[in-house]
Each structure stands twice: as C-alpha cells, then as structure tokens.
Write a structure and sequence with these properties.
three-stranded antiparallel sheet, single chain, 8 helices, two-stranded antiparallel sheet, globular, Arc Repressor Mutant, subunit A, about 230 residues, alpha+beta
C-alpha cells in the first residue's frame, strides 16, 4: 500500500488507537493479528484495512470504529469467538469487510440484528432483520451511545467520529489531518492547540497564534487532558 493509497483512510498504531478508545494496545493487536492460547490459534476478528508491507499492525479509521463496537460487545460478555462469527455472517450478507462499524444494527433489547434491505425480482425493496446474537443483554445501552457520536453516510458507513461528544467540537475525520483529533472549526490538531496553550501562556495566546476561537483551544486542552487521564488509568 503506497502513501497515496492512505489518503482519506486514517492511520493509527495500536497505541494510538488504544489511547483514543481506552483499550489496551496489546488487546487490539491480538484482535487484529490473531493469537495462540495453549497451542490453539485464534484468527483475527477481521483483516486490517491498512498494510504497509511489514509485520506491524495499523488501523484505518474504519478499523478504529470496528474495534470500538467489538470492544463494547466483548466488555458486556459476548465472547470474541462469537463476535468473529457475527462479523463473518454480516460480511457475507451486506458485503462490508467491517460491518460492525456501520449503522445497520438493530436491537429489541434481548437480541441483536443486522438490518438489511433486499430487492426482489420485481425491483421491490424489502426490509429484513438477520439475527446475529442471542444474548440476555440490553444492547440498546451499548449501541445507542456509540452511534450518537458518529456521522454516517447515506449507505450507513461511518464518516467521522466525535470522541469527546459533539459539544466538545473535537472530531476525527479520515479526510482531514490524516484522521488525527482536530478542532472541528479550524481543522487544527488538538495536540497542536493544547501544546501551544502550554507553551505560549494560555488559551488566549494560542488562539491568537493559530487564528482560532479561544473556545477551540480550551476544548482542545480539555480533550487532550482527557486522553492523558485515559493513559494513566
């Protein structure tokens, strides 16, 4: 994969992804590389979108969003084996390599479904629900908060993510700043604005230096502090 192919994909190491998602980088690597337990090999949950021709693991923005949802299910007791099986079924049905990151999932509170639309021989579109899990969990509690902070395309694929919530105005968009967290108004990376605030004497000076509203700098400082707290946790 060339540098040109990476444009618009986003690029994250497991450490960077772990910082954003609050997941141990080693766990992300296991999910995407596969691993052995007692001489038994457990394959990757899915194949990463980015390959730079070496043995290192990298995530695209879609991989980041897929990992976010997979982790939510696993944290609530769904085994990685079942998540892998559900991904395989969903990949076959909707033709998406990273189906968990789409907005096609629906739930009745006890079971989780994949929402699909099929066209019959007469060209009439019919909605169908494919049952993927049978678990006694309130999946609305898992999915609703995740979906609310993601912008989706008309086809249901994730376009951008608001990792601190929409009120913080920090966005991760693979088409902007290589997918790094940025101030949504100016596209300046939050790490740059937060560093400028520390080095130049506060948010006001940083705002003047980068010609952004002072609130943008304050939000960037808040977001970066939140990320540091996650690392320390």
């Amino acid at each position: 994969m060339s540098d040109k192919d990476l444009i618009g994909l986003g690029l994250y190491t497991p450490a960077e992804a772990g910082r954003l998602l609050r997941i141990a980088p080693a766990k992300i690597s296991r999910w995407l590389r596969g691993h052995y337990i007692q001489n038994k090999f457990y394959p990757p949950l899915w194949t990463p979108e980015v390959s730079l021709g070496d043995d290192k693991i990298f995530l695209s923005f879609r991989d980041l969003m897929e990992t976010r949802v997979a982790d939510a299910f696993i944290r609530r007791g769904v085994s990685a084996i079942r998540v892998r099986a559900a991904i395989a079924v969903a990949q076959d049905v909707i033709g998406e390599a990273r189906p968990l990151s789409t907005n096609r999932f629906r739930t009745d509170g006890r079971e989780i479904f994949l929402h699909i639309i099929k066209e019959d021989e007469d060209g009439e579109k019919r909605e169908q629900l494919l049952n993927l899990f049978r678990r006694q969990f309130e999946f609305n509690e898992i999915l609703d908060p995740l979906l609310k902070t993601v912008d989706f395309s008309d086809s249901g694929n994730p376009l951008s993510w608001w990792p601190g919530g929409r009120d913080l105005h920090v966005v991760i968009d693979p088409s902007r700043a290589f997918g790094q967290p940025i101030d949504a108004r100016s596209s300046v990376p939050t790490a740059v604005l937060a560093a400028a605030a520390r080095q130049s004497g506060g948010p006001s000076a940083a705002a003047r230096a980068y010609d952004v509203p002072e609130t943008s700098v304050r939000h960037a400082v808040e977001f970066e502090a939140m990320m540091e707290q996650r690392l320390a946790a």
